[in-house]
Every structure is written in structure tokens, then in C-alpha cells.
Fold this protein.
Amino acid sequence: MDIANGLIQYLLLISLLTFHEFAHAWTVTKCGDDTARLRGRLSLNPIVHLDPIGTVLLPLLMIFVPGAGQYLLGWAKPVPFNYHNLGNPPRDEVLVAMAGPAMNLLLAIGLVALEHGLEMFHAPSFAPLCQQAAGLSLVLCFFNLIPVPPLDGSHVLRVITNMSFEAYMRFAQFGFVIIIVLLQLRVVRELLSTVTFGTLFLLERVFGLFGA
């Protein structure tokens, strides 16, 4: 990844992560807990969602380290919530966790639709940027499903395994290290790439049919 393209992707990453975290905050508020709203997280202001490691350090390292891959990876500061304020705690924790990836999937669908709309109306200049943003949004969607803290899949794992909060917090202490190790494994990178580009290809085919 060259630096210019990497910086463009970084701006896209910040935008996509902002919508991702907003979806978490909106969902947890709808589930009965005002913690995120009271702490200013029910917002599309990217500054309130920045995480020093996931939004700054890791993505910038991927930009400036050769061979990091075609897309950036990262995460934002986890949205806080009070488990005991949720209407149906186990179900709602899963709903809140999945709201972020679901938002990224919806954004990818919208971006692919916009890409094809621009091509249909003979304004293709920004179509490649839409495609790139859609791919990055899908990367974030599937990356966040990995069941390791602070990623969203870890909350689903906690509920499914009935893991205690104490055990989850101990697990979370090593989350960053585990994620870095996982990303070094070729099978993990290839799986992430396969599901991302496979989904992007499928969306391109679907909207290509509409534009035929």
C-alpha cells in the first residue's frame, strides 16, 4: 500500500468506524441503557470514538509498514454500557455487538449502489473511491466478528459461553496481543480476504444486474 492511498484509506477508516460506533451507541440506547448517550458516544463526531491503538497506532503502522495489505484494519473505543440496564441483557448484548458490523454491511451495500449509480449517470470519477470504501467497510464488518476483545465478536462469545465478566476482563487484557498474533497467521488473513472480496464481488454482481 503506497502512503497516499494509505492516507485516503485512513480517512475512510475514521468515517466508517464513526458510523460503526454510532450504531452501537444507538442500539444500546434503544435497548434501555443511556450510558453511551450520557458519555457523549451517541454522536457522529469521530473524535469521541478514537482509540489510541485501534484507530491511531495500528492503522498508521499498516500505512507505513510495507506489505501490510490492501486494506487497513482497526477499531474504535468500545461503547460503554451497563449490562443491568438492558431490557433483555443476554439478547441485547448480542444485538449491541452486532449493530456495528451490521452498519458496516449496510454502508458497503449503499456504497456499491452509489458506485453503480455514478457509472450509470456517466459520472465515474468517484466510482473507484466508492468501491474502495465499500471494500474497507466489509473488512471492518468481518474483522470485528473475530471473537477477541475489544472486537464485537467477543461479546457474542461471552454470551454463548456464559463467560463471567471477570473472566472476560482477564481475557480482554491480552486482546490486543492476541489480535496482532492472529493477523500474522496466513490462514486468518486469507480467510478475511476471501469473505471480504467474495462479498464485494457478490454486491457488484447484484448491482451490476440492476444497471444492465
